[in-house]
Write a structure and sequence with these properties.
1 helix; about 20% helix; Thrombin, subunit H; single chain; about 100 residues
Amino acid sequence: VIDVSANGIFVCTDRFAPLQPGDILLDLAVFFPGAGTGLSAGTYMNISRAKVMRATRGDNKKYCYGILFDLTKGEEETLLQYVRLRERELLRKGMF
């Protein structure tokens, strides 16, 4: 995971995945890492629907994908809670 927001995720991997812009992804299971324990250690989330917006291969030879979430209200609340928690952690460390 390179970046996560309330709208989507940008992820890079060493392994190729046959994803193209416009592809619809259903029933994603995603782990968002944290820096502490409990909820701040990270959270698993099931995301019912998402769309691939970008598929690139970086200079570092990694396969990178920009994915836009189409969240339910409950998914949105869970993800926003995680994003806010991570922002607070980074602010405390002076990294944000």
